[in-house]
């Protein structure tokens, strides 16, 4: 079962930019409105389309375990514009249903796949911030946020870009308790994905490059953190034991060099 996650934010508030730390092969990107990304990395698996059948095929064919659907509210907005001449209210139901079906389809993806729905935000008549849809007639049919367990929102404070992980009472943010370390975290989607995989035990096993055994959690460090840390230091992921061995070897080599 794949996991859908909703990320809300105003235009230019750091939604797309939050993908900046992913490698080119790590993410499969659905670029709904063909928007240029605000960083240099070009993701190797990219689809520019606002058509549900194309997106459905893409989701099922990509090899990346992390999928991002950027500016997903345009799926609804574009369909609405295409059907602007249609009379009657059925189209609202159908537009809602199309989006609902897409989110539901994530559940049939493999269990180690995360799908991030990036969307613009809107303020409703009660002053509450929520996903931007095509308006009240759709919102009466479906509550989009109700389909997600994790809803994050961008927050810009003193020129710093964050994700809000819990509601401030005036928005629809939510996440399971203990998943994220704070109410506001860095707007780093890669770090978010690592935290989510850790929490749900979705880590596809990382193999130690020295001994060939899986990297496992030690004390307060998760497997993901150890693999990330050793990859940064040594260029390869290592288990705790092998990382300690290397530290010891370094020390011995340094001591041997100074009589
Ligand atoms: Zn090892």
List the helices and strands and how they pair.
Blueprint: E1 3-8, E2 27-31, E3 45-47, H1 52-61, E4 66-70, H2 73-82, H3 90-106, E5 114-119, E6 121-123, E7 129-131, H4 136-139, E8 151-157, E9 160-164, E10 184-186, H5 189-200, H6 223-234, H7 240-257
Parallel strand pairs: 1-5, 1-8, 2-3, 2-4, 4-5
Antiparallel strand pairs: 6-7, 8-9, 9-10
Helix pairs in contact: 1-3, 2-3
Bound molecules: zinc ion (ZN).
Q: What do these coordinates show?
A:
With 259 residues, this protein is an alpha/beta fold. It has helices spanning 52-61, 73-82, 90-106, 136-139, 189-200, 223-234, 240-257; strands at residues 3-8, 27-31, 45-47, 66-70, 114-119, 121-123, 129-131, 151-157, 160-164, 184-186. A hairpin with a 5-residue loop joins strand 6 and strand 7 (129-131). It is elongated. Bound molecules: zinc ion. Residues 208, 210-211, 213, 238-239, 241-242 line the site of zinc ion.
From the N-terminal CA to the C-terminal CA, the straight-line distance is 59 Å
CATH homologous superfamily annotation of the largest domain: P-loop containing nucleotide triphosphate hydrolases
Shape: elongated
- The secondary-structure class comes to alpha/beta
Taken as a percent bin, the fraction of beta residues is 15-25%
The largest β sheet comes out as: 8 strands, mixed
Ligands and ions found: zinc ion
What sequence of helices (H) and strands (E) makes up the elements?
EEEHEHHEEEHEEEHHH
At a glance:
This protein is of the alpha/beta class and 259 residues long. It has seven helices and ten strands.
What labels would you give this structure?
binds zinc ion, alpha/beta, Rossmann fold, 259 residues, eight-stranded mixed β-sheet
